[in-house]
Amino acid sequence: MNTISKRAQSAGWIAAIFLAVAPAGAQPVKKITVKGSDTMVLVAQRWAETYMQSHPEVQIQVTGGGSGTGIAALINGTCDIANSSRPIKVSEKQKAGQFGSAVKEYKVAQDALSVVVNTKNPVGVLTMQQLGAIFTGEVNNWKEVGGRDAPIVRYSREANSGTYVFFKEHVLLDADYAADAQTLAGTAAVAEAVANDANAIGYGGVAYFATRPACKILKVKHDPNAPAVSPLMPDGKSINYEAVYDGSYAIARYLYCYTPGKQKPGVKEYLQWIVGPEGQQIAKQLDYIPIKP
Amino acid sequence: MPATANGVTVDFRALIAQQSVRRRRWQELREGLIERFLLLNGVLAVVLIALIFVFLFKEGVQALESIPLHRLIGSEVRSFLSGTMEFRMIWQPVSTDPKYSIVPLVVGSLMIAIPGTLIATIFGIGIGIYLSEVASERVREVAKPVIELLAGIPTVVLGFFCLAVLATVLQQIYDTTYRLNALLGGLGVSLVIIPVIASLTEDALRMVPDDIRAASYALGANRWETIWRALLPAAISGVSGSVILGIGRALGETMIVLMAAGNAALVTANIFSPVRTMTATIAAELGAVDHGSPHYYALFLVGSLLFTITFFVNLTAEVVINRARRKLKL
User: Fold this and answer.
1) What ipTM score was computed for the predicted complex, to two decimals?
2) Which of B81, B274, B289 is closest, CB to CB, to A138?
């Protein structure tokens, strides 16, 4: 963001404060507490910042902690919106239902992950089962998935990463990663490691690998009979939004916001703004995938 | 002697005496203040360390409330292939069934510290002997500051060097499966410890009285025999103290191992496999952990353990080095 727009922003802020304080001093401040998914924390904070600029009467506080933490807080009534990178479980829904009306669900964005290997690796396609087997440590040689006779070197992320958890839940089906999976800080480090290691496999956001030489983004199959789909367009750079929208790319998911059935004032308008064009544009800027228009 | 001018008698001596009393009083006051200020600093340092100690242990002990002791060693895990339950030592704090075995982290720290200190001992003592006994005055004047400069390089720079350069070289030489491994981490850490050991070894050798050198030469020993048979044994306490200090430094090193050791929590004796140290685990995980969760307290427990180990290692080094000083001054 350039300094001029920043300055304009801060000017807007000051103006907003004056507008809020001077004529409508009695107007109540609407406080919204948002908690949950670490994967979403980036976009959730940007949403809150931008929204508060145009709606000075609203105060939004965003914290991470994980999808489970967010939903637990929703059940306990300590947050107004729970961010979650997975759908709410039936048991959680029931718990939340004990305290009144049913939980409301909003799909606010989508997210795709890519799996990468070194360009020297002949393997170009893997099924979801093969990916799970590789990262849980059941498969240890590239030969077993159609590659050369070479050991598989697994690169993973630190456990606090949302990507780590998503991959674990979605690809490993909640099994533990193999103990010898090397954990690196940041997807950039994964890209660096995979680029230097002919037998490596890693995962992370598409944007980190698309332009990186010596990294090859794998096509992924839902099952052995399904078509192999890449998260990238044929140009190898831009995200293949269509493959995510029609579900043919397997490692993509919705990102959710959950609220209690009885919403706090301001919450409904905020969520409508998020799923609207302005909120979705912000998601796209941050390399999330906007919900299907 | 009182002097008289224009009928006024001035007792210069008394005046000077009076002034010097005033000055002395001021000096005493100032010195007292400085002394107290320094004492305060010393006490503050000790109190701060004690408080850190207390804080660390207070948080660490709470891990035992949420995690049973045996789970800190290992837990029963269902095997993927056979489906049977087996006892495994795994550090996997983010999981539907979190596993908090500290064993792989302790093993990881040792897998870095032992090779790192061994490499650094060989090179460090060699450099120390060279500087003290072999090098000419002119060479020493250049070489010593250069080696001490090595100690001043930020560890993140050394870590980056390991990651970008040394890793590739090492993989080409040994044809290893894992690019990042314990040996690479150990090598990186040794770069930090070599100056410590070299400089302390040199000090220890220089503290050996010249009589011993002279006596050795007088008995017909050559330079090598003098160093090996007479000087090193005389300086052994100081030299071993420096090595122990090096172990402490190796155990505490964080940035280099975080970048170069691969960070897979394995219980292994294979020097070419990735390892995860206690320090790297704390650095990587504490930033985003839930305050008050079992994982949070487990990390503090790891920290307390690390603190205790390095405390005793450093204490041993201090005792050994002090003993050497006293012995050689006799």
Assistant:
1) 0.75
2) B81
